[in-house]
Amino acid sequence: MKSVLITFDQAYYERIIALLDRLGCRGFTYLERVQGRGSKTGDPHFGSHAWPSMCSSILTVVDDSKVDPLLDTLHKMDLQTEQLGLRAFVWNIERTI
């Protein structure tokens, strides 16, 4: 299993929830009004892909087999509306309780 953090503009909320539901990712934590700064290259800047435009975040646990379909779909969404700065971060889950 992987942990996935998705940061996004509020305009994506319904589409991301529908995607998680379609992939069977039932449990998640929704964080509204997150703040940050970053870019595709790692250099801070304002404008497209600047984190201040990302006002929401979802943290979810995803089966390994569903990570690639999730990321592929999120990437396609980002390409359609790059100015909204959708991002996803994935890491291994070492232990759970």
Automatic annotation (TrEMBL):
Q: Which Pfam families match?
A: P-II (PF00543)
Q: Where would one find coiled-coil regions in this protein? A: none
Q: Which InterPro entries match?
A: N-reg_PII, N-reg_PII-like_a/b, N-reg_PII/ATP_PRibTrfase_C
Top-level taxon: Bacteria
Q: Which GO terms describe its molecular function?
A: enzyme regulator activity
Name under which the protein is recorded: Uncharacterized protein
User: Which organism is this entry from?
Assistant: Bacteroides faecium
GO biological process terms held by the UniProt record:
regulation of nitrogen utilization
